[in-house]
Design brief:
By secondary structure, the chain is mainly beta. Helices cover about 10% and strands about 50% of the residues. It has 2 helices and 8 strands, in the order αβββαβββββ. The N terminus is likely disordered. This is CreA family protein.
Length: about 150
């Protein structure tokens, strides 16, 4: 009981991050029992930067373990962020600030997206990577958005 209360308190302390919306998926491996392995495409809006949407593609492990949320997903992910409207900052941007996080195993592994602001080039840079409590992964992907004026449309 004490462990459950500690975990609940830790989860409440996590800052609000962007939530992902599933755009679609494709099956990659057929499983006789449980869901198939698949590649998911998800979208999320940067919570501190209006006018930016990021798209992630990542592997999702199926089968019995995957269906129960016990499987460990692969570390590979791809990201593409785009300007979808006028860009406005909601608060101060911090380099390396986490904008998205999702667990990819029961306890020890997460996929994260962090943001950097390249002031010299007036560009937002987003990095997706996977980490583990014990051992991280060097697999990552990056995307960049130059901040451009957004045309006024009637």
């Amino acid at each position: 009981m004490r462990l459950i209360k500690g975990v609940a308190a830790a989860l409440l302390a996590i800052p609000l991050l962007a939530g992902a919306e599933e755009i679609g998926s494709v099956s990659t491996v057929f499983k006789w029992v449980g869901p198939n392995d698949k590649i998911m495409v998800e979208a999320f809006d940067d919570p501190k930067v209006e006018g930016v949407t990021c798209y992630l593609s990542r592997a999702k492990t199926g089968g019995v373990k995957g269906g129960l949320g016990l499987a460990e997903d692969r570390a590979e992910a791809s990201i593409a962020c785009r300007q979808v409207g006028p860009i406005r900052f909601n608060g101060e941007l911090k380099d390396g600030e986490e904008v998205f996080k999702e667990r990819t195993s029961l306890v020890f592994k997460t996929m994260q997206v962090v943001r950097f602001f390249d002031r010299k080039r007036n560009t937002l840079v987003y990095l997706v990577y996977s980490d583990r409590v014990i051992e991280g992964s060097p697999q990552n992907a990056v995307t960049a958005i130059p901040i451009l004026p957004w045309p006024n449309r009637p």
